[in-house]
Structure formats: C-alpha cells, structure tokens
Amino acid sequence: MIRIENISKQFGKLTALHNISTSCDKGECIALIGPNGSGKTTLIKSILGMVIPDSGKILFNGLDISGNWQYREEIGYMPQIGRYPDNMNIGQVLDMMKDIRNNNRALDEDLIRGFSIDKLLNKRMRTLSGGTIQKVSAALAFLFNPKVLILDEPTAGLDPVASELFKEKIVAEKEKGKLILITSHILSDLDDLVSRIIYMQDGKLIFHKSIEQLRKDTGEERLVRSIAQVMAENYE
Ligand code: ADP
Ligand code: MG
C-alpha cells in the first residue's frame, strides 16, 4: 500500500533520514519506534508530503506521491500536537474540516460520540485542555473513513478510559483492512495493538519485522521488554 524506496532527508548537516526503504501493507498496525530525534516524525511527514525527501521515492498504491495530492484523501493524520484556530469552537472546526474534505464518503463519528465531543461543540478551542484537543485530533483523523491512519503519539494526553476506547477503535479499523501507522513512547499501549515494528535510530531503519519475530528474537513476551533490549544493543 505504501512503498518507501531509498529516501534520504538532510536538514543542514543533520541526516534526519538515511536511505530508508520499506513497505507497509493494508490490514497491518505498524508501530514506528525509536529514540527522540531518530526520524520518526520526518518519515511520517514524508509520507504525508509535508516533508520532501532529497532523494528516493514513496509510492502510494503503486503511484509516486511527488506532485500528487489525490492520495492524501485516503489518509487520516493525527499530529503529535494538533493546532486549531483559537477562536473557533469545536463544532466550527468539525464543519470546516468537512468543507475542506468535501468528499461523499459516509462519516465515521464513532470517536466523536465515544469521546462525547458532540456535547462540547460550543467550546472554543483555546479553552480546551490538552487531552480534549487530542480527542478532537483523534476524532478528525478517523472522521472521513480513510484507508490509512497515521497517528503520531496519539495516546500521550488521553486519560485511561479514552485511551482504551481509542485502542479498541484502532483494532476495529485494522480488522476492516486499514493500514495503521502509529508512533508512541508508551510502549505498553502498543502491546495488544500492533502487528509489526519498524525500529529507527539516527535516521536509519534498523529493522522492520513482525511482533512475533521480535518476540522470538529477543525472547521477551512484552514489547516494552523487547524494545528495551533492542535499545540497549543499539546504544553507543
Ligand atoms: P522523532 O520524531 O523520531 O523524535 P524527528 O523526525 O522529529 O524525530 O527529527 C529527526 C531529526 O531531524 C532531529 O534531530 C530533529 O531535530 C531534526 N529535524 C526535524 N525537523 C527538522 C526541521 N524542519 N529543520 C531542522 N531539523 C529538523
Ligand atoms: Mg516525533
């Protein structure tokens, strides 16, 4: 579904992405893991077309994404920090996004109801807590029923109930055959969720393997223990 071929990205002297190649298929929930600054967000933004790689290419359903906008209709993106016009209320933000997307697909309002966002429509964005902004971002990512969901640190600000509901939603969408790409520092959140792991460090892709394989290779059942082992091995 998404194919990444030899992409590199330099910010000045810093190599944020170093010749990354991999592919992500539908029906998978893939965790992008690595220390701070390892290039996870840069990789995500490259897929979204928000960062333009210096070399290499990215294919979405076989088509090169460079100079192409159409494919973004198929992606729901939840940014690490969602920014919205302060003076708009939640209802206006939702309406604005519906206007911009303007597609005829049935809306998926599960999270709007699940998070009770429908009871907060008159609240202005600037008055919302960080957790509520996260909920709005999450609801927007799923609202247009996209085939691919890209979630950058989605559970960071959510309370346990919201976080659990959100994980159930992710699993349900994965089971419908969608592709989910997720980064999180809260590895315990990923345990029952992800089917594959991409591990990055210093802009390099260290491995991309199934969670079963990672468990086998490390002899650890829990993701947090497996990754601790991988990090210790790659630490210099
Ligand atoms: P991660 O998401 O894994 O924490 P990032 O992809 O955000 O890492 O960043 C990778 C590296 O690239 C970091 O060293 C970061 O400071 C740098 N970087 C990211 N975006 C920019 C940018 N727009 N300009 C300059 N440096 C950047
Ligand atoms: Mg990041």
Question: What does this protein look like?
Answer:
- By secondary structure, this protein is α/β, with parallel strands linked by helices.
- It has one domain (2-235): P-loop containing nucleotide triphosphate hydrolases (Rossmann fold, 3-Layer(aba) Sandwich), CATH 3.40.50.300.
- Helix content is 32%, strand content 26%.
- It is built from 7 helices and 10 strands.
- The protein has helices spanning 40-48, 90-101, 110-114, 130-143, 160-175, 211-218, 223-234, and strands at 2-11, 14-24, 29-33, 55-60, 63-64, 75-78, 148-152, 179-183, 196-201, 204-210.
- The protein has a 6-stranded mixed β-sheet, sandwiched between helices. It has a 4-stranded antiparallel β-sheet with strand order 2-1-4-5, covered by helices on one side.
- The protein is globular.
- The two termini are 35 Å apart.
- The model has no long low-confidence stretch (mean pLDDT 94).
- Supply the number of structural domains: 1
Number of strands: 10
Radius of gyration of CA atoms, rounded to a whole number: 18 Å
End-to-end separation in angstroms reads: 35 Å
The residue-averaged pLDDT reads 94
CATH class: Alpha Beta
Count of helical stretches = 7
CATH fold naming: Rossmann fold
Strands in their spatial order, largest beta sheet: 6-7-8-3-9-10
Specify the biggest β-sheet. 6 strands, mixed
Order of helices and strands: EEEHEEEHHHEHEEEHH
GO molecular function: ATP binding; ATP hydrolysis activity
Domain ABC transporter: 2-227
Keywords: ATP-binding, Nucleotide-binding, Transport
Pfam families: ABC_tran
